[in-house]
Amino acid sequence: MGGIGSGARRSTHIGNVEEMLALDIRALRRLGVVAPGECVIDTLRWSIGGLSTASARLRVDLSDVERGGVMAIIGQMPDGAINQPVAIEMVRSRFGGHRCYFICPITARRCEVLYYAKGRFGSRAAQRLSYAVQGMNDVSRARRKAAKLRSRLCGSGDQPRPRGRNRIDMVGRLRRAEFEAQALYLERLRALSGWSGSQRIPGERL
After folding, report:
1. pLDDT above 90 as % of the chain
2. Long-range contacts for 31-39 (Cβ within 8 Å, ≥24 apart)?
3. Residue 200 above 80 pLDDT?
4. Which of 118-140 are b and which e, b meaning 16 or more Cβ less than 10 Å from the residue's Cβ?
5. Residue 176: other Cβ atoms inside 10 A
6. Which among 53, 60, 67, 131 is most buried, taking Cβ atoms within 10 Å?
7. Parallel, antiparallel, or unpaired for β 129-130 and 15-16?
């Protein structure tokens, strides 16, 4: 027989993607770092709260569009230096042009985002990462959704505050999200307190 807790289910995830340094090939393409038909060298810096946490020199060679290319990552990460090559595959788009994918150095599968963990970059599955929302209950998820909408309304990072019709639509989405979060919270309170109509739940009107 096994010891105490030997039959307990063990989590296979080691962290959340929101906590990791990441390379998103879609964002790099918008910035011009990933450019089909070109070889680009640029420096990428990661920061948290405005403070720099790591930087890396990226050399992305996509000179041969048909054969794909490679990205070299050379820099100083929080736990030491890194010098890692990552293959890039170019796939023809149905409407013209090409779509770019990283080839995960660990699983050799296509992915669009690489996360840094244990001294190297790899896909979310290879690094055994989960999303923070997966560990939340319905109330937490609803509150997180409302908080993200509220942040977007105020403008954050490189995202400007929405204006005109977009702002009106977002205000409506925020109000619905806040109402949903409050309704789920009250429902949870009822379940926890065994409410049957004889007790008053905080926040409810008489």
Report:
1. 32
2. 33/58, 33/60, 34/60, 34/62, 34/71, 34/88, 34/100, 35/60, 35/62, 36/62, 36/65, 36/90, 36/97, 36/98, 36/100, 37/62, 37/63, 37/65, 38/62, 38/63, 39/63
3. no
4. eebbbbbebbebbeeeeeeeebe
5. 13
6. 60
7. parallel
Helix/strand/coil percent split, the chain, to 5: 30, 35, 40
* 19 vs 101, more confident: 101
Q: Does residue 102 sit in helix, strand or coil?
A: strand
What six digits make up the tokens of 150? 């509220």
For the four alpha carbons of 118, 123, 33 and 65, in that order, the dihedral sign comes to: positive
How far apart, in whole angstroms, are the C-alpha atoms of residue 40 and residue 70? 11
Continuous H helices in the chain: 25-30, 138-154, 164-193
Question: Which structure tokens are listed for 73?
Answer: 């990552």
Map tokens 């810096």 to a residue: 45
Indicate the pTM of the whole model.
0.60
